[in-house]
Specification:
Layout (H helix, E strand, L loop, with lengths): L1 H27 L3 E6 L2 E6 L2 E3 L1 H11 L1 H34 L6 H39 L8 E6 L4 E6 L1
Antiparallel strand pairs: 1-2, 2-3, 4-5
Helix pairs in contact: 2-3, 3-4
Length: about 170
């Protein structure tokens, strides 16, 4: 009799442990929020602040469509920063030599054009990042394994003891 009770307790304990592990894993997939900051977009998952590369890593593991869009946004962001630095340098150089060199106005004009292109790419990064986060968050809601917490109940009847596992 003691062996049966001991086996039942081990069996029940393993189910409770499995249930706790499954519910813990399902709660780790939290939605990502996007907000506007001074230096660009800020990503948060729960209370944790995420860099855009960390968001890209999370999407690589969980949602292929969101990952592809975020990867394209990440590329636009890199090109945007490079173009902004290059265009700003050209504008600065053009302003510095404009009085002495007639080519200063050429540098100024090209630099302004490059800065405008950088702004367009930065806007594309913002739109694509927000869209990728929306796709990721929508995927979390539809691919949830459990719609509610699993429950394990120990019940007794006139014929014996049983376990009910509802999920």
């Amino acid at each position: 009799m003691q062996k049966k009770v001991f086996c039942l307790l081990i069996f029940l304990g393993s189910f409770l442990g499995l249930s706790a592990q499954i519910s813990n894993e399902s709660s780790q997939a939290e939605p990502i929020t996007v907000s506007e900051g001074f230096w660009g977009l800020r990503f948060k998952q729960g209370e944790n602040r995420l860099s855009s590369s960390k968001v890209l890593d999370i999407m690589r593991e969980t949602n292929d469509e969101a990952y592809r869009l975020m990867n394209k946004a990440f590329l636009h962001n890199g090109i945007s920063w490079g173009a902004a630095v290059l265009g700003g340098g050209m504008v600065g150089y053009g302003l510095a030599v404009r009085d002495d060199n007639p080519n200063g106005n050429v540098f100024l004009g090209i630099g302004i054009g490059v800065v405008i292109g950088a702004y367009i790419l930065d806007s594309s990064y913002n739109k694509k990042s927000r869209r990728a986060v929306d796709i990721y968050n929508a995927g979390l809601q539809t691919s949830s394994f459990f719609q509610r917490e699993p429950q394990i109940n120990l019940v007794s009847t006139s014929t014996g003891i049983g376990i009910i596992w509802r999920f």
